[in-house]
Amino acid sequence: MTPDAKRQLSTTIRALRARLLEDLHAATDSAYRLSVRAQDAGLSEAARARRARLEVWIDEQLRALPGSEKKSDKKGASRTAEAHRRDAEKQAAYTLLNRLVILRLMEASGLRSPKVVTGGWESPAYTAFRELAPALVRRSPGTDDETEGFAFLLQLVFEDLATDLPGLYGPAGVADLIAVPAATLRHVVDALDDEGLASCWQDDMTLGWVYQYWNDPEREALDAKLNSGGKVEPHEIAQKTQMFTERYMVDWLLQNSLGPMWLAMCRKHGWTPLCERAECESDGTLVALEARRVEWRAKREAGEVELTELMPLYSHNGEDMERRWAYYVPQPIPDDAVTHAPETVRELKILDPAVGSGHFLVVAFELLFALYQEEAKHLGQEGDERWGDRAIVECILEQNLHGIDLDPRAVQIAAAALWLKGKLACREAEPRRMNLVASNLRLGSLPDDDPALVELRREVERETGIPAKLTDQIVHALAGADHLGSLLKVEAAVDDAIRAQEEIVLAAAPPQQLGLYGDNQKVQSALDFEANAAKRSLLARLEAFLAKRSAGDDLGLRLRGEQLALGIRFLRLVQEGQYDLVVGNPPYQGTSKMADASYVQKRYARGKADLFAVFLERGLQLVRRGGVSALLTMRNL
Length: 637
Description:
Blueprint: H1 3-32, H2 45-63, H3 67-70, H4 81-109, H5 124-132, H6 134-137, H7 150-161, H8 166-169, H9 182-192, H10 206-227, H11 237-241, H12 247-255, H13 258-269, H14 285-301, H15 321-325, H16 335-339, E1 350-352, H17 359-379, H18 389-400, E2 401-405, H19 408-425, E3 435-438, H20 451-464, H21 468-479, H22 481-484, H23 490-508, H24 531-549, H25 566-573, E4 579-584, H26 598-603, H27 611-622, E5 623-631
Parallel strand pairs: 1-2, 1-4, 2-3, 4-5
């Protein structure tokens, strides 16, 4: 993506957001006449039914609000029916935009043909459609398709794509009730087809930039709120802190974390890495790159090249080795890094704890794909099916990459970006699962008599003796997942409950006779409580509870295997000490500007001043012994 194209993309997405929100609001007014009672609105039977569905959805959103918000006065922070209606319109707006952007990317990469968004009303698909179905294209008196059949064709394409991407192209819930005017659809398609954006559709970072540019107005509004003395509410944290990371930062961080880990793995097995072999370049890629850096710095100092001009990179024998190591800083590989290095790239577990739209994982996919191929060479198994393109893609998506975020929209975009990346590497790849999750467990408004919660209390007490009050404390802690994400320490909440139960059991234990010769230790078998067994049982019951409270279709993909329910995935992904590499760009937000920072102040005493510092601490907890946490930090750290 060229700098000019990137600037134009920002301007285009912001303008499209404004146009879509305005037009869809007017279209909803026109279609349903919501300011008038339904019986007086003069609507057709179909329009009355759709309006009723929209009003039911709005009522459901109002009922789901926490009690404190329901009691707010009109000047307070309560969400009105009008605000929820605008939420529905916004969902319809970004659903349409995401669908068109992803389809445009697929067309540019050759994953989808004939093209329909590329070229719009002059596209090959629409041209053929006009010839095959002239009756659908020709507007007849009384028909409501002012797009001359283009919207109908687009819907057919969306329905076909819904087979693999049901969350993006399948039924969109309340967004389906918001009509998109013909002029609006044409404007959006034409804007995305502008020649100035051509380089965007060849860049796998475009989805992430579109996501940020769409969110920028809300983030800027929150900045203004903070500048006027306000604070960030828990539900606003994702909007305030979502910032896409420049590609060079992602490359640098991954090449200097995953890169040394791979070199340590090679040393562990006695392999000579390809980047150090003369077969790639006369002195090896790493040596050649470092020599060229020295030469390039000298040219800059002498004024022979512009300060902004990038050092050239070359490919050798079709290998893109230099690009994959361009930002690597030569460094010693400690002996303990070799000792703790994974046995194989297949075992690598990488987590982005604030994954956003998946930028780090998309780039990690590229590097891992090459490392799989290199390991196959070292093993002499290049022709083996286990090391074929399909097996590699599926293993990377199923085993290596993990991500957590607050925003379910961001996670769906990350899943789509990785799906596209995998399909570009091997069209036949069909991953069984992806290890991505948005932490919106939505337990905050759970009633006390919820059947699943009642069963959880009963089963936990039956199996462990832990009373309902302590179980409720754990569920209350889980409710914080919506705004804490990977910072939530689930195991700490469980451990607190178990310690409290141990104290109850110990206090109730009968007095014991002390031995004459100092044999005064209590016998554990005399206590009707075993902490480790209780923890295992409690975690298993929590998973069963969350399985009933959440589904496994949140990523919006059709996966070959059965995807774990959202809540179970979250519980498993936040378990500490399991990752080889934690990498990403954490959110930056001072806790003094947060409306509720009590949890991070209690659980993260060392980093409690700012969320980015909290994530630094959390990263070290999530990696295994000998693992690496590589997170971007503020300049004034």
